[in-house]
What does this fold into?
Amino acid sequence: MSGSDQRTLITTVTGADTDVERIHTEGQQVPRDYLPFSDGEAGDHSSVVRFTCITKSTSNGPDRTWYYTAALNLQAPDNPAFPAPGRQKMAELSVAFARQAIGKALGCTNTIQLPDGPYKFT
It folds into this structure.
């Protein structure tokens, strides 16, 4: 998604079969300038939220567990007139994006509790 100010927000939701696979994939999605908050991490231009989603393979089939990351990466032109939104805003955006993915696209049957802001970074 691109804005009129030439910034581009790249959003991805990636599922993995195991938590180890999710961690490996996540390392390739978001730069390492972020700090942890409950259920995720955020930097000035990027953020990621982690959650576990359980789905049914068929109506009477076994449950399937997926380990997801919802990642955002804001790419901005090298122009000081476009400051970074900061960790707090990026965390807020990634949680909102994850909620949309959970509610509308992924079909999770389990209850997923994502944190509400303001976010405390450790």
In short: The CA atoms of residues 89 and 107 lie 27 Å apart.
